[in-house]
Amino acid sequence: MRIEIEMGGQLRKVQLEQAAENGVWRASVDGESVTAEARLLRPGVLSLIVDGRSYRIVLEESAAEEQVLFAGTERMAYRVEDPRSLRSRRTHGGGTDGPKTLKASMPGRVVRLLAAKGETVRAHQGIVVIEAMKMQNEVKSPKDGRVTEIHVGAGDTVTAGDVLAVIE
Amino acid sequence: MRIEIEMGGQLRKVQLEQAAENGVWRASVDGESVTAEARLLRPGVLSLIVDGRSYRIVLEESAAEEQVLFAGTERMAYRVEDPRSLRSRRTHGGGTDGPKTLKASMPGRVVRLLAAKGETVRAHQGIVVIEAMKMQNEVKSPKDGRVTEIHVGAGDTVTAGDVLAVIE
Amino acid sequence: MAFTKILIANRGEIALRVERACRELGIATVAVYSDADRAAPHVMEADEAYRLGPAPATESYLRGDLILKIARESGAQAIHPGYGFLSENADFALACEEAGIKFIGPTAQAMRALGSKTRARQAADKAGMPRTPGSTEALASLDEAYEVAEQIGYPVMLKAAAGGGGKGMRAITRREELASAFTSAQSEAERAFGSGEVYLEKLIERPRHIEIQVLADEHGHCISLGERECSVQRRHQKVIEEAPSAVVDEELRQRMGEAAVRLAQSAGYTNAGTVEFLLDDSGSFYFLEMNTRLQVEHPVTELVTGLDLVHLQIHIAEGEPLPLKQEDVQLRGHAIECRIYAEDPENGFFPSPGRITRLLQPGGPGIREDSGIYEGWVVPMDYDPMLSKLIAYAPTRKMVVARMLRALDEYVIGGIRSNLNLFRRILHDEDFRAARIDTGYLDRLLQRDSGTEGEASAEVKDAAIPAVLGAAIFETLRGDGAARTAGTASAGGWKLQARRGALRG
Amino acid sequence: MAFTKILIANRGEIALRVERACRELGIATVAVYSDADRAAPHVMEADEAYRLGPAPATESYLRGDLILKIARESGAQAIHPGYGFLSENADFALACEEAGIKFIGPTAQAMRALGSKTRARQAADKAGMPRTPGSTEALASLDEAYEVAEQIGYPVMLKAAAGGGGKGMRAITRREELASAFTSAQSEAERAFGSGEVYLEKLIERPRHIEIQVLADEHGHCISLGERECSVQRRHQKVIEEAPSAVVDEELRQRMGEAAVRLAQSAGYTNAGTVEFLLDDSGSFYFLEMNTRLQVEHPVTELVTGLDLVHLQIHIAEGEPLPLKQEDVQLRGHAIECRIYAEDPENGFFPSPGRITRLLQPGGPGIREDSGIYEGWVVPMDYDPMLSKLIAYAPTRKMVVARMLRALDEYVIGGIRSNLNLFRRILHDEDFRAARIDTGYLDRLLQRDSGTEGEASAEVKDAAIPAVLGAAIFETLRGDGAARTAGTASAGGWKLQARRGALRG
């Protein structure tokens, strides 16, 4: 199996093959051969031994395109570029041109709107104020443009990933 | 939904219905009405509130016919007699007549056989010795009879539920 | 009167911690919960549990009327308020008294006398206890503010009498800043606490925050249980606490302890309380305020004294005399506490509520965790973001820091962001390790470190290959769903089983 | 020499406990494992891990040759043997010495001098320390056995010099029993230990098992860390341990401690060790044997002294002098340990290996768990059935018993059987609570209780309706698989999601 994994800004090509023995995987990472001995202790928790060194790799469960794992204590985000994977077929973020959606980065309640539909805004200008856990956070415009859509109103409850507004 | 549950030697008839509200179940147990408020915290762990009293009900995962749960600290075995349930269609144990299978009650290694095929044995006579965790345990005949089949030999590894021998 | 049932008017780790104490004392527990907390551990672990209302605290945990009604109907003889919510609400304490239900804490009267910062400063004067120079009553006018400031000398601090959490607080270095600060602090205090009362005190530069735990019974006995060092703060919120303080010696501990006991006794204080001080460079200490309740950080005192403060709170409320005298208090070893929050230190400390999808918790020697979470728990957006308190104990400060780092390394919280890495950063910092800390320490560390975040540590590079391999293996298993379900015995067909069998061996 | 890397020649909770200590001291760890333990926590938590061989201990954890080879190749400077396996194997200690790898424990010589019970009895005589009356050398013949028995008077005890775990041990109340016991004990000892050497000692009736922890550095300093009470035993296996003992006062503690130190010093003992005594009704104590290693029950001593014995073991092995003197040892509070086993007390204590399908572990104030398991772990059938050690600390014995019961109530182990309920039974027993215990206590309790097992407790009746309801709800959810997977976000269609949503709220 071939997989491409983008992690820490680098695209790594991985070729992976399960050997006959229990839990042994023969792999090459960017052409370098590696033998790894793996055991899934419970869902999302992998004990990995590579050349005698022992690692705890913990997968953070996510339905999102970007996955997160902990290698020891290091939190690492990654994206799988496997052509067979459904998830990578979704359109990626794209450049700074074109319409941009403003998404909630965390669950919370909309406290107020700082811009109205049709208003011209600047990059980094606050658009929506969300409150969670007694703290208020401004969700800011990713670019200069115009607010073409607003999907929420004061008092609404939002969850992470909800589209709040569109800036064109 | 109607379910019959055998627990602690008693057969209880339960009628269960999920109310419109979140997590509220209206039930009758042997004709007595009960309203329960339930939340599954994670697989197998149920927080149950009945008349203001709070209970932790933990299901022990099992593929066997007999299920086990912990109500607080009490370990309770039960069997579901729901006619719709596949599991209850399996034949139950039966009486003391007819052939009886001798099963391993725990995983281990067969150390030695105490009876040979064809041998006449008495109830409670040791038939197979299994070792686990440095302890040896005799699996005993459930009845007077004759050993008609022996499925294991010294040195074999067995898991719980494996048939060791048949006594007729 | 020995209690047989106690209602815990709180949530999260502190509710569970009090329930555990009650169970140890053979006392039945009544939990209350909001709709956001139906699946919370404190609900399941209680003997009884009753719904209060919707998620917002004003409709649930702050509903003293409902809580009292539940206490009465369930037959609880006492209410433990925990910290936060109603714990320092004198009206609620009074309502409990009037309803014949024991409030586990001081009387409403003592709470009022020490709860307002200006009244507490007056009490400190009466008790002959050092406090920061400045006013002891609300400032009547800007002119009075100018007058007091000249008298004590700049820099000065404007504070709300009813304050807490840094609200209504302003540091003023020059005369010109006073007028606008006065107006804005007043209106901020008015909004936050319903009282615009502010006062002025001398600003102590680079102070340490040192507090003394006191316990007073209802028979006039009061003892102190040593100090806690709480200087590691972000925006006036404690982040790490320890006991003892590296800079408090036996003589200073005794003087601060005696001052704290004097203050408590002067106000007829009963039950557990904490007297907070600022300690300056020269070793002088100044009364700051009194917290008339159990503190979040009480476990570090428990570990170095070997006592259980909640047991003692309950005994005191039952009318028992203190089971020990001042000279019986033995301090031993060193303890440290990390407040684990659902927040993202790398992103402006944004709160991070949501589902905890993965949880690995530490254990073993010297580690205590007072937690209110589990794998699968959805951290509500409605309350304080504290998830858990990780507390370590060891013979020396050096070793307890090493032990806490070990425990942090074992800890994984997935699904939401947490401040675990912040603690690693602090505990590795040379200044922290040398105990060169003051209340501004953490803000300086955060500013200093923000410049160096681009560099990948050696550890990251080390883990890059296994991390990539792990991701690839998870992805391979994900294809057939095994990554998520391999731990249970129930899933799928034989092909999947075979593959998982190979992995699990 | 300061170690930078240590190999841990063990498995289970003790391997993890030593790894934690190493991490706290900044020392890298090398784990070894058998095929049954690839997924064990001690493998994942180590820095390095190497396979030893198949599951049987003789092919893995007892392979000293392989372990030394791995130590050399991985660059470990020292080996920590834990308890059991190679920990009391003088040949292995010697092989380490010869390979230039430090064995963290006493020298082979000291181990030999104190490891044989007869030689240890001779050492006790030399150190002027009370021991049970009887022989100090192997009995040469049955005639000699008769002679010694007459001399000390019946009842007597026949014991194997190389013994342990009750093997080769016979209690003899009358002369007529001696001959057959002599022959059978000899042959049992021969089979179990490869040495048929047996000796006779006076049988102490209803003794308590009290042991003294000692620590000796390589510079001639030796201290004792108080006693542990280990009288709650089943078939000579400890089940519950506590510190301090309810019947040992300061004067007796000092006398036993001094005797233990004398013995250790007379044999040039270094590192951690335990001197076991029997204590009779009259308060007289008799030397029983010395364990030349860290004990399973060391945590109770750690909790009452505030020290970390594994840290100290490592420092001693590094050649450091003891960091404290006898007068620095402060005992405070009370600690108790429960050895949680995979066994079924209701069914003849049959071992119960297999997969742990459900695991809820306790936490909070005063609770320490040294565990080697997790939910999903398959307890191998090849080793000791110990799963975990649950240890509690509180100011008093009464409170620590209540606290342990609270923690046991929080504990759930599903999928395999455990002895959790046995501890509940013991800790609720009036004799245990009054500390009326001796080494025969538990066997008497088990016999007594076997008659009353038919009665359902009030608690069971209380829980019957919720248990039936819970079963019915689980069954309803099982239909669509939700009971098993509701905690993860990945499963199934919208219908299932909706139902689960209702449940989880």
UniProtKB/TrEMBL annotation, chains A, B:
Sequence segments annotated as region (Disordered): 83-103
Keyword tags: Biotin
Name of a matching Pfam family: Biotin_lipoyl
Domain Lipoyl-binding: from-to ranges: 99-168
InterPro entries found in the cross-reference section: Biotin_Carboxyl_Carrier/Decarb, Biotin_lipoyl, Single_hybrid_motif
Coiled-coil zones: none
PANTHER family registered for this protein in UniProt: OXALOACETATE DECARBOXYLASE ALPHA CHAIN
Name of the protein: Acetyl-CoA carboxylase biotin carboxyl carrier protein subunit
Organism in which the protein naturally occurs: Paracidobacterium acidisoli
From TrEMBL, chains C, D:
Any Pfam family matching the protein: Biotin_carb_C
SUPFAM superfamilies linked to this entry: Glutathione synthetase ATP-binding domain-like (SSF56059), PreATP-grasp domain (SSF52440), Rudiment single hybrid motif (SSF51246)
SMART domains in alphabetical order: Biotin_carb_C
Domain Biotin carboxylation: 2-447
Protein name (database record): Acetyl-CoA carboxylase biotin carboxylase subunit
Enzyme Commission number(s): 6.3.4.14
NCBIfam families referenced in this protein's UniProt entry, alphabetically: accC, PRK08591.1
Keyword Ion transport: no
GO terms, molecular function: ATP binding; biotin carboxylase activity; metal ion binding
Gene3D superfamilies: ATP-grasp fold, B domain (3.30.470.20)
Alphabetical GO biological process terms: malonyl-CoA biosynthetic process
Keyword hit for ATP-binding: yes
PROSITE patterns the UniProt entry points to: ATP_GRASP (PS50975), BC (PS50979), CPSASE_1 (PS00866), CPSASE_2 (PS00867)
InterPro entries in the cross-refs: Acetyl_CoA_COase_biotin_COase, ATP-grasp, BC-like_N, Biotin_carboxylase_complex, Biotin_carboxylation_dom, Biotin_COase_C, CPAse_ATP-bd, PreATP-grasp_dom_sf
